[in-house]
Amino acid sequence: MPYIQYLVLFVALVAIELFYFKIADKYNIIDKPNSRSSHTSITLRGGGVIFPIAILIAFFLDYVSWEISLAVVLVALVSFIDDIKPLSQLPRFASHVGAVLLVFYDLNLFSEVIWLLPIVFVLLIGWVNAFNFMDGINGITVLYSLVAIVSFAYLPVNAANLPLLITMGLSCIVFGIFNLRKKAKTFAGDVGSISMALFLGYFMIKTIIESGQLAYILFFSVYGIDAIITIINRLLKRENIFQPHRSHLYQYLANEMGYSHVAVSIIYAVLQLGVNAIIIYLDTNGSLSLYFAGGFLLLMTLVYLGVRAYIIRQLRFKKSMV
């Protein structure tokens, strides 16, 4: 796609997003803050609808298969309904299962060894739901998504998919214009976070299959470590892990420690970009192995646990001084 067409696409996505804002404002599709929220003012919800719309545009431009388009639209539609009027777990989970099966079909995973399917299924479902809770502070979802998309686009194995990645990257930039602010105009909502999570999960599996390099899973490591440790911690406390919370490290930093939402989001994105750059550099030089990836992941986890413990001690100290 020539550059002028990318510019036209960008302008079209901005126009679509602004049109959605009018609809959201008219029909009161808003996010009201509560005790578990990281924001304090009423904000338009569902601005992330631009992500599945970008997928539909990519489909009509023949950049993506009908299976992936349908998978993303399926979870986006159910999630958008849930954003407006909360649904029970069943229809949401059913849409996730249906979408994952479509991803499997697109990637021809049903021809793989049978024991691999439940492992990939659980990992992808887990990733989608963990990423969904990421839309907690301004900018974190869009910056993290953009870092992943840029990293995927840099890999030679994904050269044929550059138009699709650029299209999704442009949708992130458009959403970021309205979300990456001190006072966000809109949040992604489930429609945005879940559809983007599914797309990124699909592209991760696709990249690993086509490159044969499992270490690319580290492209999701910064938030992945935060999500997994937080889930384990909440389970130990016997909390409902499916309920909204403020227990992620980034939430502690933004809410309790008082750091800027945008600054925390940038820190997470820059850290992940640094990790991705290391992984790509080592792979390019033929030095990337699973042993290194495992050791690097362990080191990152230990550093994360140390930082988390320090922040929690600081918070306890602050409370004791009140």
TrEMBL record:
GO biological processes: cell wall macromolecule biosynthetic process; cell wall organization; lipopolysaccharide biosynthetic process
The organism's place on the tree of life at top rank: Bacteria
InterPro entries on file: Glycosyl_transferase_4
Keyword Methyltransferase: no
Cofactor(s), by name: Mg(2+)
Record keywords: Cell membrane, Magnesium, Membrane, Metal-binding, Transferase, Transmembrane, Transmembrane helix
Single GO molecular function: metal ion binding
Binding site for Mg(2+): N132, D190
GO cellular component terms attached to this protein's record: plasma membrane
UniProt membrane topology term: Multi-pass membrane protein
Classification via CDD domains: GT_WbpL_WbcO_like
Transmembrane segments annotated in the record for this chain: 6-21, 42-60, 113-130, 137-156, 162-180, 187-209, 215-236, 257-282, 288-311
Main subcellular localisation: membrane
Localization terms from the record: Cell membrane
Name of the protein in question: UDP-N-acetylmuramyl pentapeptide phosphotransferase/UDP-N-acetylglucosamine-1-phosphate transferase
